[in-house]
Specification:
Residues 523-580 form the Alpha-L-rhamnosidase C-terminal domain. With 583 residues, the protein is an alpha+beta fold. The protein has helices at 8-16, 126-129, 204-219, 237-250, 256-267, 278-295, 298-302, 305-316, 341-365, 369-382, 393-402, 407-415, 428-437, 441-457, 513-521; strands at 6-7, 29-33, 39-45, 49-54, 56-58, 79-82, 90-107, 116-123, 147-152, 157-172, 179-190, 194-195, 198-201, 524-526, 533-536, 545-552, 555-563, 569-574, 580-582.
């Protein structure tokens, strides 16, 4: 089978067109350590397109040439910005894809030998980069400064910014004769990791969706595992579950996961819920179970026991006399379901079942039979009370996955109604999982194409904090200036804490299709800790073939499935020594 490994540097041209020819020489790749001591890479990338310019500018095309980051005395090939009257020159640059990092500006020699003030605006969309800090469309500097005034030196270099962006607008703000820019390059900060997992099929859209989910999470693997590189640059444990599932699919083990799990554990007393949300403490348990199944690191799991056992006991005690959950703290599944208290109750009931089932598994592994029995007894009580989902796709998905309700009934009656309408970026992963449990694989593939493909259709290069299919109606693309009469899909939409431009367009919790396609289309399901046993049951749906790779602690598992004219699937499987394959 064709080998299909990529590195972070190679991923960009695979996804969005070749930029390799534009990359500078090797001395423009620098390595440093992040806050957890992990080496990170800085690449300097020239813009690929001039989106817009205003005023008197000369030589702007030179900015798209590779540079070396060095000012020099030749003063050749400069982009010259000349104020004229009340018109100050400005330019909007497109770096071709979402990036995490900042901006390097290399200047030339202008009259007066003085620094000059520029205004720099980073944006995940064209419209965000063109916006002002104001309440109408909620452009902010929350979590990361993306709109700033800077002084650039005469004949020198300045590096600014630490955010998520694709577009940068530069304005001259002073009455000066001219400003000369030799180079304006994005500083791309990332962990330069090989993509050990892969997915390729007869549907190029699904292939791109898989890679986009992978890249979205990869960008968020910074000091810790963040949920957003612009906002929020924080460790939210619930958000981590789709992300850690993606990381296991892509990389296998990576230390950013235990660093992040331990951080939240250590800052959260057992009398509190992680991030103030009861379900997030439950997701911490589920992540540890899944992480152990992928990596089989028993010494690390044992380190969690002192925190895990009291947490499980606390959750087990959150059941009333009617076998209903009585969770305190913030009652939350995801934002789109937050105004449906009945649906939240149903989801919380299911989350208690899922987390206590995971806890019972972990307790048996940790040789704590009494604690395992306590979890199982609590699950038995919880299953006696089956709440009404109140047409919440989020709740219906969790009820299906926990066994509180029939997966087929939940899919037929709730999740599949309207197709991908009312999906959410976070819980869409669990809606897909519930559809798989119901056997509706083709419906899941259609939902992936429609919902996540909808973001790609308007210029997304990473998946978003939230998305609603209704937003596509008469919407402008995020990589273009919004035309008169069009809706600004970034500035005009969003809710709750992410209204308008505060909305993150790179959120790791939206990466669910990446692990889902590997688990269900390639059919790779881990059945024993450390990937010692893997079951392979492909579900191609309307695909004619699907192939890919999957990292295990023993090496790379390779599979290829081809559908014959009779509809039967022929599989080629190459498993590393130490991994038992079940069919």
């Amino acid at each position: 089978m064709r080998k299909f490994f990529v590195t972070a540097a190679l991923l960009l041209p695979l996804m969005y067109g070749s930029v390799q020819a534009q990359l500078p020489p090797v001395f423009d790749k620098q390595t440093a350590a992040n806050a957890t001591g992990t080496p990170t890479t800085r690449k300097y990338l020239p813009p690929v397109r001039i989106v817009w310019q205003e005023g008197n500018l000369q030589g702007v095309s030179g900015l798209m040439q590779p540079g070396n980051g060095q000012a020099d005395l030749s003063n050749k090939n400069m982009c010259i910005l000349k104020p004229a009257g009340n018109v100050k020159p400005a330019i909007l640059l497109d770096f071709g894809r979402e990036l995490h990092g900042g901006l390097q500006i290399v200047t030339g020699m202008w009259g007066g030998n003085k620094p000059v003030k520029l205004r720099i605006r980073f944006g995940e969309s064209v419209s965000e980069a063109m916006s002002n800090i104001e309440p109408e469309k909620n452009a902010t500097n929350d979590h990361a400064i993306r709109d700033m005034m800077v002084e650039v030196p005469w004949l020198g270099k300045l590096e600014v910014g630490n955010t998520g962006f694709r577009f940068v607008r530069i304005d001259v703000v002073e009455d000066v004769p001219e400003v000369m820019l030799k180079e304006v390059r994005a500083i791309f900060n990332f962990r330069d990791l090989p993509y050990l997992g892969s997915f390729n099929s007869s549907d190029t859209l699904l292939n791109k969706i898989w890679l986009t989910g992978a890249y979205t999470v990869h960008l968020n693997m910074q000091d810790y595992l963040w949920d957003g590189i612009k906002r929020d640059r924080l460790v939210w444990v619930g958000d981590m579950h789709p992300e850690t599932s993606t990381i296991s699919t892509l990389f296998g083990y990576n230390e950013v996961v235990p660093h992040s799990l331990d951080l939240v554990r250590d800052i959260t007393p057992l009398s509190e819920w992680m991030n103030g949300i009861s379900t997030y403490s439950m997701w911490w348990i589920i992540i540890h179970r899944d992480w152990y199944y992928h990596n089989g690191n028993l010494p690390y799991l044992r380190q969690q026991k002192a925190y895990l056992l009291p947490l499980l006991r606390r959750i087990s005690q959150m059941i009333d006399e009617n076998n209903s959950e009585k969770l305190d703290g913030t009652r939350f599944l995801d934002w789109p379901s937050s105004e449906n208290p009945q649906g939240i109750h149903a989801g919380l009931q299911a989350m208690m079942v899922l987390s206590l089932q995971a806890g019972a598994e972990l307790c048996k592994i940790l040789q704590e039979p009494a604690a395992a029995q306590e979890c199982e007894a609590a699950v038995a009580r919880l299953k006696k009370h089956v709440p009404d989902h109140n047409n919440s796709k989020q709740a219906a998905a969790l009820m299906a996955l926990s066994g509180l309700a029939s997966a087929k009934e939940m899919d037929d009656q709730v999740i599949n109604v309207g197709g991908a309408k009312e999906f959410s970026t976070f819980y869409g992963y669990y809606m897909l999982q519930a559809k798989a449990k119901a056997g509706n694989y083709e419906g899941a593939l259609d939902a992936i194409r429609t919902y996540w493909g909808g973001m790609l259709s308007i210029g997304a290069t990473t998946f978003w904090e939230d998305f609603n299919l209704d937003w596509l109606n008469n919407a402008g693309r995020i990589d273009e200036l919004v035309k008169p009469g069009q809706k600004d899909i970034h500035g005009d939409y969003g809710g709750y804490c992410y209204k308008g431009f505060r909305h993150s367009l790179c959120h790791g919790w939206a990466s669910g299709p990446t692990p889902w396609l590997t688990e269900h289309v390639l059919g790779i399901q881990v059945k024993a800790p450390g990937c010692k046993v893997i079951k392979i049951t492909p579900h191609l749906g309307d695909l004619t073939f699907a192939e890919g790779t999957f990292p295990t602690p023993y090496g790379i598992l390779k599979v290829k499935h081809t559908k014959g004219k009779d509809g039967k699937i022929k599989s080629e499987i190459n498993a590393p020594k130490g991994v038992t394959i079940l069919r």
